[in-house]
Write a structure and sequence with these properties.
Layout lengths: L10 E6 L4 E11 L2 E7 L5 E3 L40 H11 L4 E3 L11 E4 L3 E9 L3 E6 L3 E5 L6
Parallel strand pairs: 5-6
Antiparallel strand pairs: 1-2, 2-3, 3-4, 6-7, 7-8, 8-9
This protein binds zinc ion (ZN).
Length: about 160
């Protein structure tokens, strides 16, 4: 453990008894390797050195009489609730169908499509090709869902 050398006049982060949080303090006096009196940089109050709340006693100093079994809580990872706003497929489908000027083609596994093609499927209805999936599939946006269909590939 490598603690930076502390000395009078230097700054250290420790617990401020007035601000009630870990803050930068100037060391006013030392007892051995440990600060004894410190002055809070924030509230300017001078008080006895208190170790940072977040950290155990400074290492290497006196056998810590703290509770050896005490578990330091591992910082909990900020878990952001990801509110994914998915565009309803139907809306996206409508948007794309309206925007498209491509002629409607009957879907057939023997046909070759390109992205942007509009197709009519006997089961899924009208859809619009999103992308080609190698080697012979297409991703199609239908009103209800996105489907992957087989087509004739890019040979055309
Ligand atoms: Zn303070």
């Amino acid at each position: 453990m490598n603690t930076p050398a502390l000395s009078v006049g230097k700054d250290t982060v420790c617990y401020c008894t007035r601000c009630k949080m870990d803050l930068g303090h100037m060391i006013m006096s030392m007892v051995g390797p440990v600060p004894a009196r410190v002055m809070c940089r924030t509230c300017k109050s001078e008080h006895n050195f208190k170790p940072k709340r977040g950290v155990k006693e400074p290492g290497g100093v006196a056998p810590s009489r703290g509770s050896p079994g005490s578990t330091t809580r591992t910082a909990r990872a900020p878990r952001e609730v990801k509110e994914e706003k998915t565009v309803p497929v139907e809306l996206e489908w409508m948007r794309q169908m309206n925007a498209s000027t491509a002629a409607m083609k009957e879907y057939g596994a023997d046909q070759a499509f390109i992205a942007g093609d509009r197709i009519k499927h006997p089961v899924f209805g009208e859809g619009i090709i999103q992308k080609l999936v190698f080697p012979n599939k297409v991703e199609v946006l239908f009103k209800m869902d996105i489907k992957t269909l087989i087509h004739a590939g890019k040979s055309a």
